[in-house]
Amino acid sequence: GAVVSQHPSRVICKSGTSVKIECRSLDFQATTMFWYRQFPKKSLMLMATSNEGSKATYEQGVEKDKFLINHASLTLSTLTVTSAHPEDSSFYICSLAGTSGRTDTQYFGPGTRLTVL
Amino acid sequence: DAKTTQPNSMESNEEEPVHLPCNHSTISGTDYIHWYRQLPSQGPEYVIHGLTSNVNNRMASLAIAEDRKSSTLILHRATLRDAAVYYCILLGGSGGSNYKLTFGKGTLLTVNP
C-alpha cells in the first residue's frame, strides 16, 4: 500500500501563531487527500477534502480561513492552522485516496499532535 | 448516510480468534463495507473491505451476512499488536461522495496476554 508521512509529528506553539502540517505520499500519486482531526478519546472527524490543483472542500462547521489547505502536487498537501488557539489542540491526520472511489483503500499518515499553549 | 453500529468494547485473549460484529441495517445495495483500525496514537490502518462475498486477506477475514445488514471482522489469532479501535464503515453508493469515510466510535479491542 501507499506510504504516507506527516511532518511534524508533534508541535507545540503559542496561542496566536500559525502552524503548517505537511502530508506527503512517498510512493503514490494522490489526486485526493483528506484531512481529519481527532480530539482525545473521540473518533476522527473529516475536516476537508483536498483535490490536486483545485480548492479544498470543507465540511460543515470547519472554517476555511482558519484551516488553509494547499494541495499543490500529487504527493504533497499542507494544512495550515492560522492563529491557533488552545481549542485547536488536537491530533491531525491526513489520508490519500485513489480514483476508484468506494472500492478504494485510504492510506493514512501517522498523524500530527498539535498542542497550543 | 447509512450508519453502522458496533459494540463499544470487546476483550480477547492472545492467540484466540476474535469476532468483531457490525450492524448496518440501512445499507444500500451499492455500499461497500470497509474496516479500518487505529492503534493508540497512530493514524488508522486499512484492514479489509467487501461488498457481498466473504473476503480474506493476510490481516483478517470479513464475513458478510446474506442480507448484508450485518458483517463480522474475524481476526483468526489475536496478538497484543491487534489491540486497537476497529471501525466498520460503509463507503459510497448512497448519494454522497464515494471517497468519504465517516468514522463512528468503533470497537475498542483489548487483547489479554
Please specify the SSE layout and strand pairing.
The complex is a heterodimer of chains A (117) and B (113).
Chain A: E1 4-7, E2 10-13, E3 19-25, E4 32-38, E5 45-51, E6 57-58, E7 67-73, E8 76-81, E9 90-97, E10 106-108, E11 112-116
Parallel strand pairs in A: 2-11
Antiparallel strand pairs in A: 1-3, 3-8, 4-5, 4-9, 5-6, 7-8, 9-10, 9-11
Chain B: E1 9-13, E2 18-23, E3 32-38, E4 45-50, E5 55-56, E6 61-64, E7 70-75, E8 84-91, E9 107-112
Parallel strand pairs in B: 1-9
Antiparallel strand pairs in B: 2-7, 3-4, 3-8, 5-6, 6-7, 8-9
Major sheet description of chain A: 7 strands, mixed
Q: Name the helix and strand elements of chain A from N-terminus to C-terminus, one letter apiece.
A: EEEEEEEEEEE
| Main pleated sheet of chain B | 5 strands, mixed
Integer average pLDDT of chain A: 90
Termini separation of chain B: 38 Å
- Mean pLDDT metric of chain B: 91
Count of helical regions of chain A? 0
Spans where pLDDT lies below 50 across 5 or more residues of chain B: none
Taking the alpha carbons of the first and last residues of chain A, their distance comes to 37 Å
Round the Cα radius of gyration of chain A to an integer and report it. 13 Å
Uncertain regions spanning at least 5 consecutive residues of chain A: none
Order of helices and strands of chain B: EEEEEEEEE
Most extensive interface: A-B, 28 and 26 residues
| Total number of beta strands of chain A | 11
Number of E strands of chain B: 9
If you compute it from the alpha carbons, what radius of gyration of chain B comes out, rounded to the nearest whole angstrom? 13 Å
The helicity of chain B comes to under 10%
Secondary-structure-based class of chain B equals: mainly beta
How are strands sequenced across the largest beta sheet of chain B?
Answer: 1-9-8-3-4
Shape of chain B: globular
**Helical content of chain A (DSSP H or I, runs of 4+):** under 10%
